[in-house]
Amino acid sequence: MDHSVETIERAATDYVALTAGLVSAYVSNNRVQPSEIGALIDSMHTALTGLAQGAAAEALATQKPTPAQIRKSITADTLISFIDGKPYKTLKRHLTGNGTTIEEYRERYGLPRDYPSVAASYSESRSALAKSFGLGQQRRRAAPEAAEPAETAETVSERPKRAGRSRKATEPADA
């Protein structure tokens, strides 16, 4: 019991010593008002302890989720991020902000290749919006128009062509 308390005190002392060393180095190379030194020490100490806690939180965050957690992360309206636990309609901007791609995210958390990057309801609403604007309809409109000239081209020349003779020479004259 005494050993763990001693370790905690030593770790806290290490942060105090690190903070003191960093603040003294900063103050010796930069102009700082005496009234700002207290805030500088506080912010430096908070940053150092936050880094230590962030490293521990990141180590916990890289643990692979269970299949049940993966199923629960996918809802109709949102996708729950394994990075910060917050809901998102689309993961692209969130992942880009964290410096990763959807493929890296899937690999990092052991997600299947078909894990969605967009919530189902968001995808459906965007699809309906695109259809209402008529997007994606060009091929359907162009297909019947392209088919009509092909049919008329086949009906124009019903007789087979004869090699070496012109049509006018072989047809009887109407006099």
TrEMBL record:
Its domain of life reads: Bacteria
Q: Name one Pfam family in it.
A: ROS_MUCR
Q: Which InterPro entries match?
A: ROS/MUCR_sf, ROS_MUCR
Low complexity compositional bias: what residue ranges? 144-155
In this chain, the stretch annotated as Disordered covers 129-175
Family label? Belongs to the ros/MucR family.
Q: What is this protein called?
A: MucR family transcriptional regulator
Q: Which organism is it from?
A: Methylobacterium longum
